[in-house]
Each structure stands twice: as C-alpha cells, then as structure tokens.
Amino acid sequence: MVMDKSWIQLATRGKPESIKGVKEFIDFATAHMKPGSNLIPCPCLNMGRRCR
Fold first, then answer.
1. Which of 11, 33, 31, 6 is nearest to 21 (CA)?
2. Which DSSP letter does residue 6 get?
3. Which of 36, 4, 9, 37 is nearest to 23 (CA)?
4. Distance separating alpha carbons of residues 24 and 30, to the nearest angstrom
5. Whole domain around residue 32: which residue ranges?
6. Is there a domain that residue 40 lies in?
7. Residue 24 lies in a domain
8. Domain Transposase-associated, which positions (predicted)?
9. How does pLDDT run across 18-38, given as a tens digit for each residue?
C-alpha cells in the first residue's frame, strides 16, 4: 500500500492538512512496523528512509 505524502511538502506544518497527514503517517507506520521494533522509517526522501 502506498500512502499520500503530499503533506510533507506543505509550507506551514500547523495547517490541518499537515496535521492530518502526520497522524495518517503515524497510523500507517505503526501498523507496518517490523515485529519487536520501535523504529519507523522517515517518510521524506532527504532522510533516505532511515529509521528514527
């Protein structure tokens, strides 16, 4: 499943669209975490999908 990451590009991170995108990402990422892990990959390309 691919998720919409357009919220990453929003200029104002306090906008409702941005907050909604972050919440959806957290829900998606936690649902797809590796068993026994507490790390999730960063959704932006700048981080190279490294886990934080």
1. 6
2. G
3. 4
4. 10
5. 6-47
6. yes
7. yes
8. 5-46
9. 888 888 888 888 888 888 888
